[in-house]
Amino acid sequence: MSKVEERTARALLHRLAAEQAESRVPSLAAALVRGGQVAWLGFRGRVDGESPTADTQYRIGSITKSMVAVMVMRLRDEGALDLLDPLGKHMPGTPADEVTVAHLLSHTSGLTAEPPGMWWERTPGAPADELLAGLGSGLSRHRPGRRYHYSNLGFALLGELVARKRSMPWEQAVREEVLEPLGMTGTTTRPRAPHAQGYAVHPWADVLLPEPENDHGAMAPAGQFWSTPVDLARWTAFVAGHTGGVLSPDTLAEMREPAAVDDGESWVSGYGLGLQLVRHSGRRLAGHTGSMPGFLATVWADPAADLGVLFLANTTSGVRASLTKDLLDILAAHEPALPAEWLPGTADADLLALTGPWYWGPSAYLLRLLPDRGVSLTPVGGQGRASRFVAQPDGTWLGLDGYYAGETLRVVHSPEGGVHIDLNTFVFTREPYDASAPVPGGVDEGGWR
Fold first, then answer.
1. Does domain 6-334 have CATH number 1.10.10.10?
2. Is the pTM for the entire model greater than 0.85?
3. By the number of CB atoms within 10 A of the CB, which of 139, 334, 337, 397 ranks highest?
């Protein structure tokens, strides 16, 4: 089932209507995406005297960055660059030569947030060669890797990196390799009809001021794109995991991994590789917010639930950050997801023999089987290091998460018939400190007493 129930749709529309009225937004569009399909679309306000539609364009601001980041990851997967490469290896001569591609993607480069010159979001932009020529020393605000510091300039550099690697404008590469394969034909660098006019709403009166719109030149990769509700729904489905062949699922999952924490009063948000991250009501959401003069937009996806939410608005400020999360909460309250049915599977005898208790010293762990000969190792009582492991062709297992992510688990059989687990030098045995196993440091000959 894709579409929401009528009762749910009414509650969702009520929340959207309250946002549009209370925050005084000229027009507002929102959507929920479930299972890769649009489950609900809602609209309030007016664009040129009419209700906006699924095909009405709004500017999406920094959501553009995520699309540029996908192009960078495609280049990485092809072997055209490495995330640990310094920018100077591919674009020599900038003041950011020593900053890595990963630093730029995760906003940990330490570069200044904005480019030198006038307020770039409200003025026409310069071409890349002019922007780069105007970058002098003093662009760094922090040591690379020290902390999360959002940098629009950093993504301008990534856009130019894409352009040089593809020998075409960055937007052409993104369009041909990302947008078109995902069916996002309504996403463009400049507005096309029908589109919303961007406005500032007077803080103390119900009047509007049209905001400027320009081609931002070399800064465009930081926030140039316009999109539609239906196109942004396709993007939301992509972030949730419906990659459409644009990226491998593993690469997209890598982009959603936290690379930096946005350190505020509490650690609830951060940044991956071109994707913002946030926790809400037990959900781990990935996506991006966007703002440009006259426009606000947000995309959040919950890959674990195959669910997403978005909104688009033509106002410079005012839409509450709680809107998207409230829409997710309404859906959860009205149509809670059913747990997947449990079905019995199959297991090889050699794996069944490994299930049950194991001991890391005196600490008890349980080994359970996962699909495709995978295993999990979890502490009894929940205190300790838990990880899942995927089977490898050589008979070992590779850690997927937790403390042992990327580490190798081996099951070792001794000539005498004993068995133990070697997990990156740690030895797990069938009994606490089994003297018959090669426990590092040995086992006291006197035994337990």
1. no
2. yes
3. 397
